[in-house]
């Protein structure tokens, strides 16, 4: 019996069903509360735009809810684990299962199995829904909740270096030779870094090479004169490859597309450690749903008296939240080269996997 991971079909279904119900119940509570708090801060900004109303508020909710689900699903698994096992312990159901010959790992087996299923669903949900909602919401936020641009990949407040010179754009949209910069400013600088000429225009298109600014205002610093020109070509060193590389947003790109973006950046000689860590974290992140039952399991065992149950629940909560802290810290360290990408994404997972197993074996097995 000790070698049988699921010794009882009835018990497996009972625990799995109880676990899943609590996961999604806690997820619904967390998302509902956090969405209401988020709306309190964003409603004024959305309704401040002329023409926006209730439909735009619902649009914001539809774009924000997938992000909240993706972020707080692991927390829901942790809370569901602690509440469920604490209840089973308090009602002596854990004692009954152990008296029947089940080990702690066998009791947790249905929870780990459902955690793996939740992780798979979370990964698919992130790849199919969350990245699209994130891209749309960012494009909407870039225009300060005005009409959402048709090009959801549009970027705001971009700048490019052409030697000493700088090309800046309020909005970058389109792709390839159809790329368009709007609210454009070009600063021509000397070797000392001082601006010698400033060119501004509402729009600039790719001129191969350079960028053609139409109806441009050219200000010459030496003479303090401004003159209008129908067309000016600037920044011949800013190529389309630079433009495309600036579009990389790991939160708004699926795994395959992010792989291509990383390869393009590497081919251009750019540093990609942060993006590689985010690539790996797209896999390790959802797997935290498998880790949470192990970290929260300490709440389900031991004596349910004299405050021991509460202390164990607090320990399980602390272990779970410590994982999220370490996980975020590792990603932050990777962003400036402190950790290799693979280590930053996977080290917290395996570290707390060992911690959870050690606590479980030392106390229960």
Automatic annotation (TrEMBL):
<keyword id="KW-1003">Cell membrane</keyword>
<keyword id="KW-1133">Transmembrane helix</keyword>
<feature type="transmembrane region" description="Helical">
    <location>
        <begin position="107"/>
        <end position="125"/>
    </location>
</feature>
<feature type="transmembrane region" description="Helical">
    <location>
        <begin position="309"/>
        <end position="326"/>
    </location>
</feature>
<keyword id="KW-0812">Transmembrane</keyword>
<feature type="transmembrane region" description="Helical">
    <location>
        <begin position="338"/>
        <end position="356"/>
    </location>
</feature>
<feature type="transmembrane region" description="Helical">
    <location>
        <begin position="283"/>
        <end position="303"/>
    </location>
</feature>
<keyword id="KW-0472">Membrane</keyword>
<dbReference type="InterPro" id="IPR030923">
    <property type="entry name" value="LptG"/>
</dbReference>
<feature type="transmembrane region" description="Helical">
    <location>
        <begin position="68"/>
        <end position="87"/>
    </location>
</feature>
<protein>
    <submittedName>
        <fullName>LPS export ABC transporter permease LptG</fullName>
    </submittedName>
</protein>
<feature type="transmembrane region" description="Helical">
    <location>
        <begin position="12"/>
        <end position="37"/>
    </location>
</feature>
<dbReference type="Pfam" id="PF03739">
    <property type="entry name" value="LptF_LptG"/>
</dbReference>
<dbReference type="InterPro" id="IPR005495">
    <property type="entry name" value="LptG/LptF_permease"/>
</dbReference>
């Amino acid at each position: 019996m000790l070698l049988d991971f699921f010794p009882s079909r009835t018990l497996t279904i009972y625990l799995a069903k109880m676990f899943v119900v609590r996961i999604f119940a806690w997820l619904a509570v967390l998302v509902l509360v956090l969405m209401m708090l988020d709306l309190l801060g964003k409603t004024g900004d959305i309704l401040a735009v002329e023409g926006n109303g209730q439909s735009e508020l619902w649009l914001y909710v539809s774009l924000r809810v997938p992000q909240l689900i993706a972020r707080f699903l692991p927390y829901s698994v942790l809370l569901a684990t602690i509440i469920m096992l604490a209840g089973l312990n308090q009602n002596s159901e854990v004692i009954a299962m152990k008296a029947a010959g089940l080990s702690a790992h066998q009791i947790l087996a249905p929870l780990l199995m459902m955690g793996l299923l939740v992780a798979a669903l979370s990964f698919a949900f992130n790849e199919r829904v969350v990245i699209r909602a994130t891209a749309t919401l960012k494009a909407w936020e870039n225009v300060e909740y005005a009409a959402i641009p048709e090009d959801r990949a549009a970027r705001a407040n971009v700048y490019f270096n052409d030697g000493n010179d700088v090309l800046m754009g309020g909005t970058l949209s389109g792709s390839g030779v159809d790329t368009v910069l709007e609210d454009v400013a070009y600063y021509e600088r000397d070797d000392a870094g001082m601006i010698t000429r400033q060119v501004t225009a509402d729009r600039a298109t790719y001129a191969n090479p350079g960028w053609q600014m139409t109806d441009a205002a050219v200000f010459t610093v030496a003479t303090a004169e401004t003159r209008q020109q129908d067309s000016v070509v600037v920044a011949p060193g800013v190529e389309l490859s630079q433009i495309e590389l600036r579009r990389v947003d790991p939160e708004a790109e699926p795994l395959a597309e992010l792989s291509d973006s990383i390869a393009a950046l590497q081919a251009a000689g750019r540093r990609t450690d942060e993006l590689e860590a985010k690539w790996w974290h797209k896999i390790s992140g959802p797997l935290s749903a498998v880790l949470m039952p192990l970290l929260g399991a300490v709440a389900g065992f031991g004596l349910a008296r004299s405050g021991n149950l509460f202390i164990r629940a607090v320990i399980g909560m602390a272990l779970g939240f410590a994982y999220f802290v370490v996980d975020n810290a590792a990603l932050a360290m990777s962003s400036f080269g402190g950790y290799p990408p693979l280590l930053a994404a996977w080290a917290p997972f395996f570290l707390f996997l060992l911690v959870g197993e050690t606590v479980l074996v030392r106390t229960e097995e």
